[in-house]
Specification:
GO terms for molecular function: hydro-lyase activity. Belongs to the enoyl-CoA hydratase/isomerase family. By secondary structure, the protein is α/β, with parallel strands linked by helices. It is built from 11 helices and 10 strands. The longest helix has 20 residues, at 85-104. The radius of gyration is 20 Å and the shape is globular.
Length: 268
Amino acid sequence: MPDGTTPLLLRQDSAAGITRLTLNRPGSRNSLSFAMMGAVLDALRAIAEESSVRVVVLAAAGPVFCAGHDLREITAHRADPDGGRGFFDTAMTRCATLMQAIVALPQPVIAEVQGVATAAGCQLVATCDLAVASDQARFCTPGVDIGLFCSTPAVALSRAVAAKPAMEMLLTGEMIGAAEAQRIGLVNRVVPSADLQPTTESLAARIASRSAHTIRIGKAAFHHQRGLPLETAYAHAAAVMTENLMAEDAAEGIGAFLSKRQPVWRDR
């Protein structure tokens, strides 16, 4: 914790099943210290087991969304007997585990980006299922500026946007604005700062109103098929759809559509 009492991560739950997680190190630009990554991981692991949570919003306190890894923490570990190698390896592994936990989480995760997202902070945005950004938000992967190529952010970035825009960000380290981030597919929506939270909450509420069982099936299938060859991807998706059709909510949803009424989800 920054001062021994202030939590690194704030959690707020709504009756609609929307959980807001807020990175809470504004004085350190919400950098992903080892402890911060652990706090987010712990929260995600808990949420994964909570059927009452239907959507997660990942936000941040202060003017910066996330400045990436904590470079002061990294530099301090250069004084370790091994020059920091052990800590660097452990920290990068924890970061990879965090990003994969977001992808593996049954519930969709929406990044709400109010300010700058750099390096691993940009990676965090790219990893989330959806992203809504303020028109003041900016993004970059500036590792090349300090002799450190953003190789791990590249994993998420290259899966969120096309190869050439991703490589341009990685090779130049240049900052891009919210409109450009939307154009290349890094974020879904760009809105005025005053509309950021209402827009994110509205999007989250729309998703939360759907069958949670269906959303969980769909998110898992989407991420799984992306790494498969076309024929295998279709075979997997077909099998998933067959199982989905057997679900109670699918029968209810189709029946409601045919009867021109609102469905009543049982989330199973």
